[in-house]
């Protein structure tokens, strides 16, 4: 199976995520974790807490529009699995971020940068879990994902 490797797009995306995380910490004093931002948006502690969360979520949702404005086309998204498997994966990830007290953006980007032991363990768990999942899906079940 061929894997698409895009080092420059990946570097640009990583730089933007890192810059956004630093800006959020500098401006609001909060750690950028996507699931925490979404959870606080749904159940905000205050109106000012809701405002910055809404701004970040709006930026996440309008990102493809900015891509379109710059390139004249939307990003190509290919999902090589069925909708039920995609939904199951979403439920599993949702459970994981709930029990893991954070997601890859919170632990992997911000927590690792702060050398948080909890985030280092969480990120290692994400990576090992991902490697096992890919191996089982591709080589045990033969799903070619």
Short description:
With 145 residues, the chain is mainly alpha-helical. It is built from 6 helices and no strands. Helix content is 73%, strand content 0%.
Describe the protein's architecture and organization.
With 145 residues, the chain is mainly α. The protein has one domain. The chain has helices at 7-27, 34-42, 47-71, 83-99, 104-113, 117-140. The longest helix has 25 residues, at 47-71. The radius of gyration is 17 Å and the shape is globular. The termini are close together. 14% of the residues are buried. The model has no long low-confidence stretch (mean pLDDT 86).
Number of domains: 1
Average pLDDT metric = 86
Structural class: mainly alpha
- The SSE string, one letter per element, is HHHHHH
Question: Biggest β-sheet: count, sense, barrel?
Answer: none
Tell me the number of helical segments per DSSP (H or I, 4 or more residues long). Answer: 6
Low-pLDDT sequence parts: none
Strand proportion, as a percent range, falls in: under 5%
């Amino acid at each position: 199976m061929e894997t698409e490797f895009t080092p420059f797009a990946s570097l640009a995306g990583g730089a933007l995520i890192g810059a956004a995380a630093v800006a959020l910490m500098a401006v609001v004093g909060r750690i950028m974790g996507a699931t925490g931002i979404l959870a606080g948006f749904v159940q905000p502690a205050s109106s000012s807490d809701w405002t910055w969360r809404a701004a970040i979520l709006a930026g996440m949702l309008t990102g493809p529009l900015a891509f379109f404005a710059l390139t004249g086309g939307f990003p190509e998204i290919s999902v090589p699995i069925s909708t039920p498997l995609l939904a199951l994966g979403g439920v599993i990830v949702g459970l994981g971020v709930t029990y893991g007290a954070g997601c890859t953006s919170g632990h992997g980007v911000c927590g690792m940068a702060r050398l948080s032991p909890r985030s280092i363990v969480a990120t290692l768990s994400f990576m090992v879990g991902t490697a096992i999942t890919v191996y089982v899906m591709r080589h045990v079940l033969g799903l070619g994902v």
